[in-house]
Amino acid sequence: MKRIALISTPWPLFNRPSIQLGTLKAYLKDKLPSLPVDNRHIYLSIAAEIGYDLYTTVSEKTWLAESLYAGLLYPHREEPISRFWKKRTSRVPTAKTHDFQEICKILRKRSAELLDRENWDRYVLAGFSICFGQLTGSLYFIREIKKRAPHIKIVAGGSACAGALGRTLLRSFPEIDFVIRGEGELPLLSLVKSLTRAQGTANGKGMPGLLSRNEPAESEGVSQLSNLDELPVPDYSDYFRELNALESEKKFLPRIPMEISRGCWWRKPVGPGRSSGCAFCNLNLQWEGYRAKSRHRTLQELDTLARRHQILSVSFMDNLLPAKGLESMFKGIRELGKDFRLFSEIRATTSRPVLEAMGAAGMKEVQVGIEALSSGLLRKLNKGTTTIDNIEIMKNCETIALPSLTGNLILNFPSSDERDVSETLKNLDFVFPFRPLKGIPFWLGYESPAFQTPSAYGIRRVVNHPYYTHLFPEAVLRKLRFMIQGYQGGIRYQNRIWKPVKEKLEEWRKFYLKLHQAPGSDPILSYQDGFDFMIIRQRQYGTHDMTHRLRDTSRKIYLFCETHRSLPQILSHFPGFGEEKVGPFLRMMVDKRLMFNAGDAYLSLAVPLHASPFKRN
Ligand code: SF4
Question: How far apart, in whole angstroms, are the C-alpha atoms of residue 299 and residue 283?
Answer without folding.
Answer: 25
